C-alpha cells in the first residue's frame, strides 16, 4: 500500500484514511477506502439524468400524450401527486409535504450510512441509488407539487404497469441491492 506524507488540516475532510506517524514525526496518510465521493458522484449523475429526462418530457409532451416505442413500451407524460403506484395521489395536497419529509429523512439516512460504511461497495451502491431517486422525486415535489412519470410498460390483454421515471428505477434497484447485500452479509457469518 502506497503511503504518502501529507499535511493534515482538520478543517478539510480526508476520504477514509488511516493516519500514521513516521519516525521523524510527520503524519503519514494512507488511502484505504474510497470514502463517500464515488457514491455521491454516482447519485449526482443519476439525479441529473432523472431531471434531464423529466424536463425533456415536460417540454416535449402534452399531459397524457403517449408515444408508442415498442409493442410493450410507451413514453407518456403523467403526473403523480402521491407515492409509488399513486398511493395517496388524491389526498388533497398534504401528502406533498409528507413525502418530501420522508425523502429528506431517507437522504439523511443514506448519507449517514454511506459515511459510516464507506468501504462496503454493494451497500453504498444501493444507498446511492436510493438517495438519488429520493432526491430526484423530491425536486419534482418541491418544484411542481407532483412527480413527473413517463415510462409506461404494458402487456396486451393484461394492462399497464403504473408509469414511472429514472428516480423510481434508482429507488427500486437500490432497494433490491440493499436486500441482496444484507443476504450476502448474513450468509458470510
Description:
The longest helix is centred in the first third of the chain and has 24 residues, at 37-60. Strand 4 (66-68) and strand 5 (73-80) form a beta hairpin. This protein has two domains: 1-32, no CATH class; 34-188, no CATH class. Residues 1-17 have low confidence and may be disordered. The chain is built from four helices and seven strands; from the N terminus they run βββαββααββα. With 189 residues, the protein is α+β, with helices and mostly antiparallel strands. The protein starts with a strand and ends with a helix. It is globular. The protein is 49% helix and 18% strand. The strands form two sheets. A four-stranded antiparallel β-sheet has the order 4-5-6-7. A three-stranded antiparallel β-sheet has the order 1-3-2, with no helix packed on it.
Give the count of structural domains.
2
What is the gyration radius calculated from CA atoms? 21 Å
Counting DSSP H or I runs of 4 or more residues, the number of helices is 4
Low-confidence stretches: 1-17
Give, in order, the helices and strands: EEEHEEHHEEH
Taking all residues together, what is the mean pLDDT? Answer: 85
